[in-house]
Amino acid sequence: MNCKKVLTVLHLGENLLNVQTRYLENAIRDHLTRLRQMVFLVGPRQVGKTTLAKKMLSSVVDGVNYFNWDLADHRKLLSTSIFPGKMRLNQPEQQIIVFDEIHKYPRWKNTLKGLFDLYEPQTHWIVTGSAGLNVYRKGQDSLLGRSFTYHLCPLSVAELAFNGNPKPLSADDLFRHSFAESLPEDQTFFERLLSFSGFPEPYFQANEQFLSQWRTTRLERLLNQDLAATEHLRNLALVEQLMFLLPHRVGSPLSLNNLREDLEVHFNTVKHWLALLERTFYGFTLYPYSSRLSRLIKKEAKWYLWDWTEVKDEGSRFENLVAVHLLKYVSYVNDLGLDRLTLHYIRDKEKREVDFLICKERKPYLLIECKNSSDDPHPALFYFADKLKTARAFQLIANPIRSRSHLKAGIQVDLISAASFLKMLA
């Protein structure tokens, strides 16, 4: 990245950091104004959930409208006064209350239910969490109808380009959109994200040494706090070894048998550990799209990391970055109720494969392939666009290029720069 680009993105990045605007801010403010349900704000560790939640408060008053279970004095106040009902939450500054890491309290679900029922509609609640909140929501019904979930994801090209306020496009809007050439700063945002991740601190620091230190600390806390708190795992050292192996598997169908052999553990053990790593936001799986096409592979998932800078291979890192951008877009659109989208990949037994497929209402809609540089569209795009009757097919190029379309037997594939495409996503 040249000096001019660095100065440009530093200037724009500093503006965003100073105002601390995130793409979910307006949506959550609107929710708190119109809706009675609690806001469950979930996402990876250090993605900015606490900062965003505190911005919803007119002023942050510890122990009054902001409670963090990790703080001893907050924990004592909640356990001895607020949860037992000895102290009421009816002060003017308590119209919105934030509970941070409250999932670490053993009876947090029923406690929140009781508080919600007691103080509704005068008080609105924001509950933030990464590992535990995401885990324990699954399969529980005590908060059914009392909460809506919003997923806060890492920074993206769109969020940076629009200073935290990208307009969420439905799948139909994205289909109809005519993609303009990316601006120089969009390409700079993309390259900096590729190098320093979408987590705010390392992104704005833009320093390799800081990134390395930050990553080590994040992984240690994820392993020794989030995973350890989730379950009493006996073999944290082996789980850590699994975390060392996964970055090398990014972008390829994940063989649990190979991982089982490498770790010398049972197949179901590896499967369980991967599920825990997904629930604690270390990474996520994409499952292949299955339909009546008989030659599609329906079982092997692909694995991606929330911090794509752990991936050393350039092509795989680029694909991982796009995967996070697409998942962020799908989650954003779904959270706001604009569409019902799912994200997959597609591969058949002849090893024809396209990196990503967005489905709308469970039907194939948009195909997306990633290439570092290429003059020609990937043949599998034409094949699957024809077989699945998708609305559009895109090939994203990491290097800046002039957008162009290729036609073959009536099927159109658009080649565009990744920065240009990603700018239109949330």
Description:
By secondary structure, the protein is an alpha/beta fold. It has 2 domains: 25-151, 3-Layer(aba) Sandwich (Rossmann fold); 157-422, no CATH class. It has 17 helices and 13 strands. It has helices spanning 3-19, 25-34, 49-55, 72-82, 108-119, 131-137, 157-161, 171-176, 184-196, 200-205, 208-230, 236-245, 256-263, 267-279, 314-335, 379-388, 418-422, and strands at 38-42, 66-68, 96-100, 124-129, 147-151, 283-286, 302-305, 341-347, 353-360, 363-371, 392-397, 404-408, 411-417. It has a 6-stranded mixed β-sheet, sandwiched between helices. Strands 2-3-4-1-5 form a 5-stranded parallel β-sheet. It starts with a helix and ends with a helix.
